[in-house]
Amino acid sequence: MNYLIPTNTKKSMLIFGVFTPGDLILFGTGLGITILMLMILSPSSLLMAAIDLAPGVITGFLVLPIPNYHNTLVIIRELYTFYTTRQRFIWKGWCAKDEYDESKQIHK
Predict the structure, then answer these.
(1) Is the pTM of this model over 0.90?
(2) Per-residue pLDDT for the chain (108 aa), expressed as one digit of tens each?
(3) Which of 33, 35, 72, 102 has the fewest other C-beta atoms within 10 Å?
(4) Quick check: 71 and 62 in contact, CB under 8 A?
(5) Looking only at Cα atoms, what is the longest distance across the chain?
(6) Burial code of 28-61, b = ≥16 C-beta within 10 A, e = fewer?
(7) Are 37 and 31 a contacting pair, CB within 8 Å?
(8) Distance of alpha carbon 79 from alpha carbon 97, whole angstroms
(9) What are the CA-CA distances from residue 98 to residues 33, 88, 94, 102, 104 (Å)?
(10) What is the Cα gyration radius of the chain?
(11) What is the reported pLDDT for 103?
């Protein structure tokens, strides 16, 4: 009775096994803006260099793969959804056999 559970079955659907097309578009846009800013603003100080590199670094951080999630952007979206939606927790009591049926409950 051994079961074979494949890990990362959807990994073959991703580009390089890590990125979705949206991830690459986001990262490519950030890199494109970074290159344009480097050409237009020409960094003469450390602060200007940091400002010029910011779009590429930020988008790179957002598409960074993280274990148990797809990437950082997914975690940020899930945290936003969790904290902005109403959470409803149903108390089931301490017993393993609970006689309460929520579908028969009349809400006033």
Answers:
(1) no
(2) 666 656 666 677 778 878 889 999 999 999 999 999 999 988 899 999 999 999 999 999 999 988 878 899 999 999 999 999 988 877 766 665 555 556 665 655
(3) 102
(4) yes
(5) 72
(6) eebeebbeebeeeeeeeeeeeeeebeebbeebbe
(7) no
(8) 33
(9) 58, 19, 8, 11, 14
(10) 23
(11) 62
Upper half-sphere CA count for residue 15 (Cβ side, 13 Å): 8
User: C-alpha 102: how far from its chain's center?
Assistant: 34
Report the alpha-carbon distance of residue 74 to residue 81 in Å, rounded. 11
Q: Which amino acid is located at 13 in the chain?
A: M
What's the CA angle centered on 70, arms 66 and 73, to 5 degrees? 85
How does DSSP classify residue 7? S
Residue with tokens 């400002």: 51
Residue 90: what are its φ and ψ, rounded to 5°? -100, 125
